[in-house]
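Ticket #454: bound-state structure for pyridoxal-5'-phosphate.
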Amino acid sequence: MSDETVRFELPQSEIPHQWYNIQADLPRPLPPVLHPGTKQPIGPDDLAPLFPMALIMQEVSRDRYIDIPEEVREIYKLWRPTPLLRARRLEKALDTPAHIYYKYEGVSPSGSHKLNTATPQAYYNKEEGITGLTTETGAGQWGTALSQACNFFGMDCFVYMVKISYQQKPYRRAIMQAFGADVTPSPSDKTQAGRMILERDPNSTGSLGIAISEAVEAAATSGGKYKYALGSVLNHVLTHQTVIGQECLKQMELAGEYPDVVVGPIGGGSNFAGIGLPFLHQNLTAGKQTRLVGVEPAACPSLTRGKYAYDFGDTAGMTPLVKMYTLGHDFVPAPLHAGGLRYHGMASIICEMYDQGLMEATAIPQLETFQAAITFARSEGIIPAPEAAHGIAAAIREAQAAKEAGEKRVVLFNLCGHGHFDMSAYDAYFAGELTDYEYPQEEIERAMAALPQV
Ligand SMILES: *Cc1c(COP(=O)(O)O)cnc(C)c1O
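RESOLUTION: The complex was predicted; output attached.
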C-alpha cells in the first residue's frame, strides 16, 4: 500500500478574500451591450430596474480584484474551500501517463457551483433594500442555489422553472420549496411573455429563454420590490465563480504540479470561467501556457457552430442585445439530458476569450458523455451531473491523447456538480433511450437569418 495523496485540502482561512475580474486583463475589452430599442450602448441606469447597483458596477468594472464581503465569506465557509482530488483510480482505469485532477464543487449545499454566485447576488440585493428575487431555472441547479441564498438572507424567491423539468423533476421543485421558494412552471399565465407563448403553443414545454422572459418581466413589473437574478452568462456571475480557480492554484501547488490543460463544461460559461480565469491570468501575466478547453454538447454547439453576433439573451426579445456566439434566441433545444447546457448563447467573457484565441472549445455527443460519467463514477465513486460529465469526457480525451503521445500531461477539470438529482437521465441512459443528436445545419442557418439587425 502506498500513501499517495489523492485529496488536496485548504484550511478555511484560505477562502479567497477577493474575486478576480478578467476585464482588467483582457487584451481587447468586451464589446458594448446595446439597448434593444435604440441599439445604442446601455449604461448602468438602464440595468437598474433589474439589478442592484453594486452588481451593475461589478458588471462593468475593470478593477482586477473585487473584495468579497465578510457576510458572503461567512456563508462560503459552509462548503469552501472545496477539495481538489487527484483521480488516480481513473488514471489507472484509463492506463494513461496523464495526471488527472478535479476540483469538486458538488460538496456545496446546493450540489453545484451555483451557490458561489447566488450567495453574493442575494447579499447585494438585500443590502439595497430589495425584498425578493425572481429567476428562471432549467435543470434546477440554479433555482436550488438561489432559493438557498434567498433563505439565508430572509428574502422571497420566485422561480420560473422550464415546464418539462418541472414535470420530470418533482424533487427539484420540492427542494426549492423546502427553502421557501415559490416555483411556477414556465410558460405560465402569470406573465405577458408566458401568455403569448401559450397562445401560440398551448402545449409548450418551455425553454430557458422563455423562462428568462417571464422572470425578467416579473421583476420589471414589481414596482421596485423585486429584482432579477441570473445564474450564469453575466460578467459579475463569472467573476464570483473565480473562487474556484483561485483555490485550485493553491491546491495544485500543494500537489506540486501545474496543469497543462484546464477543462470544464460550458452552458453559459460560469463554472468554466470560475476554474479557468485564474489560470488565464497566469497565462497573460506570468508566462504560463495552460490550454483552456470549454466543452459543450453537440446538441447545443454555441461556440463551435454558432455565429458571433448581437442577439437577445431571452426568447421574447426583452433583454439587452449582447454580442455572443449564438444559435439564435428562438433556439429550441433537443431534449438533451444536460439541462444546464441548453442555452442558445454564451457569456460575453467566454466569447471574447474564444474570439481572441485565449481558449479552445470542443463539442461532445451525449452517449460519449454518459459513458465518461460511468467510467468516472466506477473509478472515483462520484456520480457527476450530466453537465459536468461533458468536462469529464473531454478530460478523458485529453488523457487518451497523452497516452498516444506517450507524455505525462497534467489535466485539471471542474467537477461542477453531482448528479444525485439527475438520476432520471441515468435511468434513460441505462434503458438505452438516449441517442446522439447533432444540431442540424438548416436550423442554424434559419436562426441566423432571424438575428436582430445591428
Ligand atoms: C448551471 C450548470 C452548468 C452550466 O452553467 P455554466 O454557467 O456554464 O457553468 C453546468 N454544470 C452544472 C452542474 C450546473 O449547475
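RESOLUTION NOTES: The mean pLDDT is 95.
TICKET STATUS: resolved
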